[in-house]
Amino acid sequence: MRVFHTPPEWHTLRPSGTVGFVPTMGALHEGHLALVKTALAQCEHAVASIYVNPTQFNNPDDFAKYPSTFDADCQMLKASGCQFVFAPTFETLYPDGYRYRVTETETSTLLEGAHRPGHFDGVLTVVLKLFNCIQADAAFFGEKDFQQLLLVKEMAEALHHPTQVIPCPTVREPDGLAMSSRNRRLTPAQRALAAQWATILADLTLSCDEATQKLEALDFTVDYVAEHWGRRLGAVHTPPLDGGGPVVRLIDNVAL
Fold first, then answer.
1. Cβ 148 vs Cβ 141: under 8 Å
2. What is the mean pLDDT of residues 56-65?
3. Please, what's the b/e burial string for 4-23 (b: 16 or more CB within 10 A of its CB; e: otherwise)?
4. Region 123-135 average pLDDT
5. Cα–Cα distance for residue pair 254/143, rounded to 1 Å
6. Assuming Cys at both sites, which of 14, 50, 189, 216 could form a disulfide with 241, CB separation 3.0 to 4.6 Å?
7. How would you classify the pairing of strands 249-255 and 231-237?
């Protein structure tokens, strides 16, 4: 597996044949590796990026706490069959210092966009930059971040980008919790409670208001439970259990 840091390096490394791209912020888990395996099933080569993008964090503390596990991530990617890893710096991706950015004016104002101002500007801008650097045939995104997936797919189509955006099913733990890098911040008591969050969100016999009430009864702080785009989507903050554990924000969605 080859690690490269700039687009010119990639231009010298890029093999002939189709290329599948998996953008990540590191702290990898089996959900990320499933994306790599899907990329390799559909393309001849797979390249993953590892870059914690500061422009999509509306909360500086959240950015500071995001785990950095680059060496372990590379080992996992190598074991999964990934052949290339793009690990850029901020200066490489943002020579303009983020003066130029991508803004969407409708879908991005809802749900995550309403609770995380500027988040999707950062997401769409960095994804477009990564797409332009890699010029892959296809890029693979998990459905757990469904609003993000929708926006990225629509952006690529609207801007006539040649990279095809491929949705991939959410990978879950045995108890139903969606795999996420944030899960490693949960205390044992929070982790047990998080399984109930996933179960309640997926119970479509409940209305959105009823699901919200059940979650609040378990001391979750609910940002939203809402239905859009053929999905039920939700975001919650865990209560600080175990003598003052961290408050962790979790998002998930299920098909209606």
1. yes
2. 87
3. beebeebeeebeeeebbbbb
4. 98
5. 9
6. 189
7. antiparallel
The alpha carbon torsion through 172, 177, 180, 181 (nearest 10 deg) reads -120
Confidence of residue 61 (pLDDT cuts 50, 70, 90): confident
The rounded distance, in Å, linking the Cα atoms of 91 and 233 is 35
First to last CA, the chain: 40
Taking alpha carbons only, the member of 115, 143, 120 closest to residue 53 is 120
Going from N- to C-terminal start, the domains of the chain cover 2-168, 181-251
pLDDT tens for 175-198 read 999 999 999 999 999 999 999 999
Cα separation, 238 vs 116, whole angstroms: 17
| pTM for the predicted model, two decimal places | 0.96
CATH number of 2-168: 3.40.50.620
Amino acid at 114: A
How far apart CA 84 and CA 78 sit, in angstroms, is 9
Per-residue 3-state assignment (H helix, E strand, C coil) for 36-76 = HHHHHHHCCEEEEEECCCHHHCCCHHHHHHCCCCHHHHHHH
Work out the angle at residue 207's Cα, subtended by the Cα atoms of residues 204 and 210, and round it to the nearest 5 degrees: 115
Catalytic positions are 32
